[in-house]
Amino acid sequence: MNEALKELLDLLDLEQIELDIFRGRSPEERIQRVFGGQVAAQALVAAGRTVPPERYVHSLHAYFIRPGDPAIPIVYNVERVRDGRSFTTRRISAIQHGKVIFTMSASFHVMETGVEHQAAVMPDVVAPESLPMFQDRMLEVVGEDSPWREWLARPRPVDARYVTPLTWEAHRDPELRGSETNVWFRYDAELPDDPLLHVVLAAYASDFTLVDTVLLTHGLAWGASNVAGASLDHAMWFHRPFRVDDWMMYAQESPWSGAARGLARGEMFTRSGELAVSVVQEAMIRVS
After folding, report:
1. 120 found inside a domain
2. For residue 118, is it within any domain?
3. Residue 230 falls inside a structural domain
4. Which amino acids are annotated catalytic?
5. pLDDT tens, 167-203?
6. Phi, psi angle pair for 272, to nearest 5°
7. Structure pTM?
């Protein structure tokens, strides 16, 4: 397990400071705002701490309201909205400087049997072992003397391998533009058999590439274009148990953008092709 993954797991180990009140911190990095996937993951951990372990999270709906300040802790207040016979609902507010920066509603469900079908089909893509890691591929694009080199050399908790073009590649070559992104990802260490942990880590990883799918359509790229953006809302549905220390295929598409916003949808499949997670996100995207 590399140091970045150890640090992430430590960030997800929230401190309980009162009944249904938790405190989380951010990594010690020079960043302007807290990564949205981190806030979503920590909020889901806080909610899970108030729910019996036999109830599994099946959905979340979140809004990013204000940018998070990485210099101070984030306080998570959990409201116990309902504890029913089969479903449990929690509402979580993330607070900094006395203001709400993020809200989430999460629903948990006892394991039941019922009708089953899967219409979604995993894209027919090459195996992850045949693809370079994101940072190696990105370094080829920007060059060894790029100021991005130091950032790319940092260890990462998630091993991501793109099947489709990177936004920087499409920025330089219009022929590579498109509205779909396919990425293999996994956490490169054996993780505990805790279903909530794997869901939380999927939520963390889900925010890395969705907005990029919108940018890819227009040949835009963070750091290479005059583009500014931020996640507005984020929704996830968890369909079956899965493990993020096994390879997951994250198939994403952007059906629409306009009015300084962009919409992206994603589906996470197990390597065997089972649909495990569905994701939808809208983001603010402004080009100057």
Report:
1. no
2. no
3. yes
4. 207, 231, 281
5. 999 999 999 999 999 999 999 899 999 999 999 999 9
6. -80, 0
7. 0.96
